[in-house]
Amino acid sequence: MGYFTISDLAQEFHVSTRTIRYYEERGLLTPIRTESGQRLYTKKERAKLKLILRGKRFGFSLEEIHEMIALFDEDRTGKKQLEKTVEYGRKKIKEVSERIDDLLKLKAEMEALLSDFEKRLREWEDRAE
Amino acid sequence: MGYFTISDLAQEFHVSTRTIRYYEERGLLTPIRTESGQRLYTKKERAKLKLILRGKRFGFSLEEIHEMIALFDEDRTGKKQLEKTVEYGRKKIKEVSERIDDLLKLKAEMEALLSDFEKRLREWEDRAE
DNA sequence: ATTTTAATTGACGTTGACGTAAAAGTCAAT
DNA sequence: ATTGACTTTTACGTCAACGTCAATTAAAAT
Questions:
Q1: Do B93 and A107 touch (CB under 8 A)?
Q2: What is the CATH T-level fold of the domain B1-58, as seen in this structure?
Q3: Separation between the CA of B44 and the C1’ of C27 (whole angstroms)
Q4: Which CATH architecture group holds A1-59?
Q5: Which of these, A27, A97, B40, B98, could form a disulfide with B3 (CB 3.0-4.6 Å)?
Q6: ipTM beyond 0.85?
Q7: Residues A95-129: pLDDT tens digits?
Q8: SS3 for chain B, per residue?
Q9: Residue ranges in chain B whose pLDDT is less than 50
Q10: Which of A67, A76, A86, A95 to mutate to test the interface with B (most CBs of B within 10 A)?
């Protein structure tokens, strides 16, 4: 109980097992192994996969995501480490905020475009009376 | 006046000329040509490039961006065409909205993480008194 | 016990999004 | 008119992010 197999995760997140192994190759996931060598994923690893996939959806590269995930993994005991982490976290949050703003702009542009088309459509319909 | 060369755009948007030609190969841009065959870009083409690059920043593929740009290019005169366009536009706007929501979630997660680290850091500092 | 299903590593293949180099033509400046 | 910067097409190269076998081993189902 409490452990997931590779295909559990593959099914849950709709990715291939190859993909999950690839993320491990790249150092993003670190499952434990059974005696016979099969991978077992804890809830934490599952959470990491979730984060990876979310990151991917915004176009972050695996390398960037790797850096983000480091926040979960590294040993953050010393003060220096904590400070570095906090600083890095602020930076990343800022990046995300910028992306959000950018997306809002895109949305606004698309909405303007759409309302123009809608107007034209109404004109068409008025004409048809 | 009013026309841009390929390197004008390359400089303005910090992309290579190869990239711009590639977008044309993929049907995303359609510059006009001089007598001798050199590409000239109108303001509209420039706007399209801007949109392409914005789209890229959110991880949309060129194929997806192509679909979005079609809103600018196609001949949208008939009622049917207009209706299709409006419907498609709504769909795309919804997709963008979902991405924004997703990013906001990510931001919230990161902020929660960060405040945890900040708390630990304060504890560290208190201890140091 | 044996068939079926799932897991492992290894290696090669593929696709998207360009980079890079070559050969030839064009434009602007001197 | 020649130099040098810029452009064109063609073509091969590259890198990330996987896909797709293949051969082998392990687990689950019957």
A1: yes
A2: Multidrug-efflux Transporter Regulator; Chain: A; Domain 2 (1.10.1660)
A3: 25
A4: Orthogonal Bundle (1.10)
A5: B40
A6: no
A7: 788 878 888 887 887 788 788 888 888 887 776 65
A8: CCCECHHHHHHHHCCCHHHHHHHHHCCCCCCEECCCCCEEECHHHHHHHHHHHHHHHCCCCHHHHHHHHHHHHCCCCCHHHHHHHHHHHHHHHHHHHHHHHHHHHHHHHHHHHHHHHHHHHHHHHHHCC
A9: none
A10: A86
